[in-house]
Backbone:
């Protein structure tokens, strides 16, 4: 779905990623790679699969758009112990494919501890708040914003409640445009979500299977 | 006993003699009939004959030496523990035994618990969770080596539940640690005592066993608060509050009263209404239910014991315990839905042997009068419900396998032998056991769980080596199931109780709701806690708790069908039924009253759309299952969508246009062929399986349960059971815990067996179909159920009144009666 924000052309993808046409950058947030492994190591039998699925989707997007850079807005990893050697190999393989040259990570709360290992895999670690071509990028949304320029972030894992018919309700991940903040859904395949209460004037874009649909508020 | 002026009953003497002769046993007795002494004096007498040498006695700090652990008294409720200890202690002192007695529950301090592990008292009152926890320590091998006797109290409460299974597994382990111990169980009257005995003693007992019944010398006195005019169009909840003045009169007649309501919501409503009508009773009436904090509940129980309260409005939370408190009478609001429950609750009054049990029934809608009458008749025939069996749930076995691996290493065959001793697992197959062992060591399939470890397998020995995993497991065992709940606390930190997460997440600051008898206003919802303050005014939100509605038991359901049949055939000689004769007449005239061997189907076509009602009279869960089945089968045929409403008597499926059904042959839609497959498809397996999976995930350790205060450090391990369910479905769909979820939904939720039975019966019946354009006394409650979900309770009352008015006028015209018969005038 194409969305124009403050003169910038963004393409919202149902996987939760955003392609920013002017800068040829792919933005995504909250992958939480290695989450199943973290659980398993603590004795909780969660089957592996989501991390690899997430990486597969990312690879497909990179091959399709061929961006100049990929920017992850925090929580690339779920926890340091989740970065097993198997996962490191996968990440190195993905970055090594050469289609995209710059892989930038804006640190999130879950990434702590994994920075140096990620750098060795090829990630550039940026500051917690980056200003790029008039747009600000960070991990966690600001609680109150008085600037008019756009702030893109993640961290919340937003989702929206939808009534299908009189009985069935469902929760869909969504992009949330609130004041001058755009909050991305979690890109990771196995992440929890937080239902939002949109205010009037907000724009909500729900991710439904293979489409992004703007909802009437 | 003679000192207190009590003469032992014959059955008590039998119990003591049988115990000393080496029997295992089950005592069936209602509360207040002396079952505590019946079970306890046997082991005490045994001590007098066979004391244990002082060299084996343990010495604790600040305690004189006492014999080692000889007797365990297992109780399902920790609230009961203190009272039980008192009663047991009296016996010990009465016989001047050197025994020490302590309790061990979730409320016991950790210093006491750790002292008990190393130097246990002679006898312990303990909950199943605390026993399991004790069995997880390596010291347990010594702790229980002298054990002679285990008594399980309120066994009927534990049977057929996962806690009961946990108890069975703990007992199987105790059999290994102390092969010669004796087991006795105490239970209320149930329909299948042999099953109760078998599940208590297990498969491998060398002892003879017996079932002893205390003859019910307790007389039952039942009173019915009949309304002066009964609503012709009964809908749940409405009639009840109209009876408030009569209820208050009844409360005034005695010193202490327990007022039982069927849902937590109802208790809050009634408490408020009573308080508003009698403000002079403030501080002398209270509310008690499972979602209130421990502090509040203990306060109420204590006050009851001390006879400081006139009345307590409660749910099944007070079905057990507070045994030693004088309750003069019991009021039951709304149908208790089961015969055993009536007996148990009525038995709470007049608690000394010899005094009659009194219960006053307050119907909440007219059809409940039939249920009440059926219940009364069933009691005279002692036709009590049977407890159903929970067949070898694997999640409990998973938990047990890890618990055992914490205590001591074991081999596969050791575990197999131990576990198959538990009656619930007598048929455990090798594949199932292998799966469990695979699951706890590798997660199940190696490629799906590469980094998993929990139990280590080393040279055929299973053992937990990781201290953090051990710690987490012990914390998890200690917790009893609770739905996703949010704590409700006042701004100064006082815990009021809990509400469901689904309710709390929809609250806005300023919303007001009733809890613990007080009107609370939400200040802020943060960190899993709803912070509130006292407020004035009217509630703006109504909490709904999930474990809400008990379905009508099959025993009671068949009683209702039989009574209806009598009514249909014209036998209307019973007092209670006279009160609803108007209703019955209208149903008869406008539609039909089914007799035995008939199934009634109604259709109603009006501006609203097309509704089809079927009345199996088989309880709510069967109604739910049959509704889903029917709607699914019909919509599969033609692409039509339905909304569904159910109650204990039947169900309604509603659509905008009429479905293409051949009404002459409607029975074909209810065939038993492909029942399970169709049910499975219709349930949208997901929703129900997810709900059921919550408990499975908790028990088998798939979700992390932190101890209070640990939230921050383990935030990275938080995942909802729903997420875990998704992960399993996608990446390990053969996982047996998912299968267990499907089984549980079919078996428990839908009561598959009961549904099959109902369908067979319906196939043998004559189907009577009536096509109507207006609601009948049978269908009106279903109509209300259907619209209930969509609107708040305020406008619900108005909506119903509006719908009721024309029907009321039509009925009155037919009956030619005065307008004194009318809608009861309260806000519902």
Residues:
């Amino acid at each position: 779905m194409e969305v124009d924000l403050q003169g910038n052309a963004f393409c919202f993808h149902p996987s939760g990623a955003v392609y920013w046409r002017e800068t040829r950058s792919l933005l995504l947030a909250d992958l939480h790679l290695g989450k199943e492994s973290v659980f398993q190591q603590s004795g909780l039998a969660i089957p592996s699969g989501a991390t690899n699925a997430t990486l597969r989707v990312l690879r497909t997007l990179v091959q399709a758009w061929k961006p100049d850079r990929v920017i992850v807005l925090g929580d690339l990893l779920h926890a340091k112990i989740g970065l097993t050697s198997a996962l490191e190999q996968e990440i190195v393989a993905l970055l090594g494919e050469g289609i995209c040259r710059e892989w930038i990570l804006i640190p999130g709360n879950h990434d702590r501890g994994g920075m140096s290992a990620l750098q060795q895999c090829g990630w550039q670690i940026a500051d917690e708040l980056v200003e790029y071509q008039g747009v600000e990028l960070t991990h966690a949304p600001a609680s109150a914003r008085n600037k008019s320029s756009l702030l893109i972030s993640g961290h919340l894992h937003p989702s929206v409640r939808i009534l299908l018919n009189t009985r069935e309700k469902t929760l869909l991940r969504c992009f949330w445009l609130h004041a001058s903040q755009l909050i991305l859904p979690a890109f990771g395949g196995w992440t929890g979500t937080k239902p939002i209460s949109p205010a009037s004037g907000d724009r909500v874009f729900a991710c439904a299977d293979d489409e992004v649909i703007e909802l009437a508020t | 006993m003679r000192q207190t002026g009590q003469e032992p009953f014959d059955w008590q003497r039998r119990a003591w003699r049988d115990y000393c002769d080496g029997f295992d046993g089950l005592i069936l007795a209602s509360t207040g009939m002396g079952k505590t002494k019946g079970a306890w004096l046997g082991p005490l007498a045994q001590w007098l004959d066979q004391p244990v040498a002082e060299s084996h006695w343990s010495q604790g700090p600040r305690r004189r030496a006492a014999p080692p652990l000889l007797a365990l008294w297992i109780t399902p409720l920790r609230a009961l523990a203190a009272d039980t200890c008192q009663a047991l202690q009296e016996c010990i002192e009465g016989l001047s035994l050197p025994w020490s007695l302590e309790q061990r529950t979730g409320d016991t301090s950790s210093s006491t618990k750790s002292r008990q592990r190393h130097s246990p008292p002679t006898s312990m009152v303990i909950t199943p969770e605390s026993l399991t926890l004790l069995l997880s320590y390596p010291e347990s091998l010594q702790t229980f080596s002298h054990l002679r006797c285990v008594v399980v109290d309120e066994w009927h409460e534990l049977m057929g539940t996962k806690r009961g299974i946990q108890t069975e597994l703990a007992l199987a382990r105790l059999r290994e640690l102390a092969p010669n111990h004796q087991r006795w169980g105490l239970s209320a009257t149930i329909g299948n005592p042999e099953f109760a005995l078998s599940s208590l003693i297990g498969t491998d007992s060398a002892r003879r066993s017996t079932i002893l019944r205390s003859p019910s010398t307790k007389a039952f006195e039942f009173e019915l608060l009949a309304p002066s005019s009964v609503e012709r169009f009964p809908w749940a909840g409405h009639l009840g509050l109209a009876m408030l003045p009569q209820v208050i009169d009844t409360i005034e007649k005695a010193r202490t009263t327990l007022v039982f309501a069927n849902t937590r919501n109802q208790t809050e409503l009634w408490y408020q209404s009573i308080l508003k009508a009698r403000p002079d009773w403030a501080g002398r009436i209270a509310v008690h239910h499972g979602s209130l904090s421990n502090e509040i509940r203990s306060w109420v129980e204590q006050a009851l014991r001390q006879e400081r309260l006139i009345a307590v409005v409660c749910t099944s939370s007070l079905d057990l315990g507070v045994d030693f408190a004088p309750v003069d009478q019991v009021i039951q609001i709304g149908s208790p839905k089961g015969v055993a429950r009536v007996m148990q609750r009525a038995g709470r009054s007049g608690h000394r042997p010899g005094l009659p049990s009194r219960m006053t029934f307050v119907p909440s809608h007219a059809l409940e009068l039939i249920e009440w009458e059926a219940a009364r008749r069933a009691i005279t025939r002692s036709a009590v419900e049977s407890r159903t069996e929970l067949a070898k749930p694997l999640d409990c076995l998973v938990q047990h396998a890890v618990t055992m691996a914490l205590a001591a290493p074991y081999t596969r065959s050791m575990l197999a032998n131990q576990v198959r001793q538990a009656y619930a697992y007598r048929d455990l197959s090798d594949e199932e056991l292998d799966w469990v062992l695979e699951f706890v060591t590798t997660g199940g399939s190696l490629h799906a769980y590469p980094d998993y470890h929990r139990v280590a397998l080393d040279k055929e020995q299973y053992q937990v080596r990781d201290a953090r995993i051990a710690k987490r497991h012990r914390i998890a065992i200690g917790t009893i199931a609770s739905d996703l709940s949010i704590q409700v606390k006042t701004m100064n930190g006082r815990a009021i109780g809990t509400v469901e997460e689904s309710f709390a997440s929809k609250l806005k600051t300023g919303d007001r709701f009733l809890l613990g008898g007080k009107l609370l206003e939400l200040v802020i919802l943060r960190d899993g806690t709803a912070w509130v303050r006292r407020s004035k005014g009217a509630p703006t939100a109504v909490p709904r708790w999930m474990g809400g509605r008990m379905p009508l038991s099959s025993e009671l359901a068949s009683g209702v069908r039989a009574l209806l049949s009598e009514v249909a055939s014209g036998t209307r000689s019973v007092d209670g039924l006279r009160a609803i004769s108007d209703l019955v007449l209208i149903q008869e005239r406008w539609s039909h009253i089914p007799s035995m061997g008939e199934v009634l189907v109604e259709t109603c076509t009006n501006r609203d759309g097309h509704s089809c009602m079927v009345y199996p009279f088989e309880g709510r869960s069967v109604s739910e299952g049959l509704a889903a089945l029917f709607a699914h089968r019909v919509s599969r045929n033609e692409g039509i969508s339905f909304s569904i409403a159910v109650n204990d008597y039947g169900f309604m499926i509603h659509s905008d246009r009429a479905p293409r059904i051949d009404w002459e042959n409607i029975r074909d839609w209810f065939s038993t062929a492909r029942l399970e497959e169709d049910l499975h498809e219709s349930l949208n397996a997901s929703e129900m399986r997810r709900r059921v999976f919550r408990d499975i995930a908790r028990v088998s350790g798939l979700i992390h349960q932190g101890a209070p205060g640990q939230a921050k450090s383990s935030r990275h391990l938080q995942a909802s059971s729903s997420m875990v369910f998704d992960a399993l479905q996608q990446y390990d769909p053969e996982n047996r815990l998912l299968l267990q979820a499907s089984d549980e939904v079919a078996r428990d939720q839908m009561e598959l067996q009961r549904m099959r039975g109902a369908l067979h019966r319906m196939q043998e019946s004559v189907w009577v179909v009536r096509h109507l354009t207006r609601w009948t006394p049978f269908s009106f409650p279903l109509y209300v159920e259907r619209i209930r979900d969509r609107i708040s309770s305020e406008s619900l009352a108005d909506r119903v009144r509006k719908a009721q008015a024309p029907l009321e006028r039509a009925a009155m015209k037919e009956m030619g009666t005065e307008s004194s018969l009318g809608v009861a005038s309260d806000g519902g």
About this structure: Residues 220 and 391 of chain B are 35 Å apart (CA to CA). The first helix of chain B runs from residue 10 to 20. The longest strand of chain B covers residues 518-526.
